[in-house]
Request: fold
Amino acid sequence: MTARIGVVTFPGSLDDRDTQRAIRLAGAEPVALWHKDKDLRQVDAVVLPGGFSYGDYLRAGAISRFSPVMETVIEQAKAGLPVLGICNGFQVLTEAHLLPGGMLGNDHLHFICRDQKLRVENAETAWTGDYRQGQEIHIPLKNMDGRYVADEYTLDKLEAEGRVVFRYVDFNPNGSLRDIAGITNEAGNVVGLMPHPEHAVEPLIGTGRTDGLPFFTSILKKLVNA
Reply:
């Protein structure tokens, strides 16, 4: 039986179908989840995709955090369910306090869309096992509220515990503190990042590379070997 990975659709999600395709290319079964349903349909992992849920009103991810599905996601993530938040999904994870810190508007006050170089800082999470620590990859980035912020204590704690998963290289596209592009929780089952790995899974799209595919093969291997 193949692993089943749920992809939540909120009002305003843009990249749910792309994420489902990436999951399918990795060899797992994508399962569509609707934001109003608490039932996760017995999935083995969950992805919160990119987009502009609820139009980013109040704050990006602030309303989606209270969707019925998130009640179950929060509960099961605390019990060990692997959860990946991409862009808007990362924002939702911070609003839900599954990840520390928060997201503010880009420091240049403009929407940005570019191919972004990242360095893998932690290859031991549920979603990064197929990468190497120190590996540099190229992943598409597109956001308006992508500036990661946290107080100095939290930043120091993330660094000391190896919970910075990805860091921007050569260019910080949004003013994120300490060039942080993605982080994980203490258990390593919840990961959030601003760039979009689902747009880098086939040579003909995105960056023209497949640097994003290991996110999805990593979790598949993790689940199969569990």
In short: The helical segments are 16-26, 68-78, 88-95, 152-160, 213-224.
